[in-house]
Amino acid sequence: MESQMIRPGHLTAHQVAKQLGISLGAVRLLVHRGQLKRSGGTPRQPWYAVADVAALVVKRQHSNAA
Known about the structure:
The chain is α+β, with helices and mostly antiparallel strands. The protein has 3 helices and 3 strands, in the order βααββα. Helices cover about 50% and strands about 15% of the residues. α1 packs across α2 (about 25-30).
């Protein structure tokens, strides 16, 4: 279940997955591989910075276009 209270400028794992078009498991893999860092929340409901997610979206778009 998603957290109802989230700091401005942050996204939940569900929101990140939706933005990137991937599963929650894939979001966890991005964190494990060091491509995305948690920036708050709890261990069970982490938050991710909007800027980090936006940078990852751009990076993925460029690698898909090449």
